[in-house]
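Practice problem: MFS transporter
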Amino acid sequence: MNKKFIRLFAAGHLVTDIYQGALPAMLPFLISEKNLSYAAAAFLIFAANASSSIIQPLFGVYADKISLPWALGTGVLLGGIGIGLSGIISSYNVIFALVALSGIGIALYHPEGARLTNKFSGENKTTAVSEFAAGGNIGFALGPIITTIVLSFCGLNGTIILCIPAIIMGIILLYQSRHFSHSEHEKVSEDNSINYKKEVKVDDWRGFGRLTVTLLCRSTVFFGINTFLALYFVHVLKQSEVYGSIALSTLIVVGAVGTLFSGKLADKVGNKKIIILGYSGLFPLLIAFLNIKNPIIVSIILIPLGFFLYMPYSPMVALGQKYLPNHVGLASGVTMGLGVTMGGIISPILGWVSDNYGIHTALSALIIMPIFAVVLARKLPIPNEDINNKGKEGKRIVNIKKISNESL
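Answer key — structure tokens:
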């Protein structure tokens, strides 16, 4: 595993996802200063995620055909500039367009970043993917903190300051992009020379389709909570905007820990088991979260809730790449893009429910999703790669025993 590149990709992922985390934290300020309704605010989440959902798989397809190392730096820049300019604009339509531009930048980064992470991961694919995913989770966590601090002091015009991390990281990634391409060609040549008799890998599209639907269940819960958690603390639990943003950051920081933990554990016990475990723990925690009104206890519940909410994520991304070994970019684009951000498309529906029936009712509708996810996850097939590896491992053990018997 090329740890230097993996960590750089994770760092870029961190900066990119700051802007996904920033947008939900901006909503209370937008609602207050621009007099937006819940539905109008939720449509901004829709703009970011719809643009990312549609485009990200397309970038994934191109990433499978040609190397796009420049996409990393460009994606970070667009993601940051779109959010950075959105706060200084008065027109809602222009804000909508800028948020969509940020979503396109985020879509540009993820497939190529995940593909290169897979390429340089060696045998520890889920561990490498978990590090890459954890970088994004940390960015999600930092986004609300940075945004709340900046906007509390500077107002919405302070969003221009948020461009700075994107500009710095974008320049670094663009400068390093030629090294990614050069090293990748060397690695491909090395792999081909060693494995010239390498067996043909077969894509499991049916398994990948089932995985995508399973991921949509998690995405729906994630974006429902991510969009309305800060607002829930402000308008239902009667806490300050800062308290709401801290709660959102707490959820995501714990999620980053859960992502790293699940990635390392999945390499040992299997992706499927971790996915089922994560969804199974999420169901009772959602019930407890929505039925307790003490803000301190609710904040404590966020710790295991975030852990189990994020636990299935990196195993599902790694599993998707194993289902489609010949289309890793597409698999990454769907699992990290379409399969994740499609959940953001339901945000306007939840916004409408919140406007008419309250935020608590909207979040309560999410409880059924983990149940569907467990049912679907139990039927996920074992990837061909894992079956082959088990077969090779079994033959290796048999050969060792045979050698030992012959020695005796």
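Discussion: The chain is about 85% helix and 0% strand. Students who identified this feature from the tokens alone can consider the problem solved.
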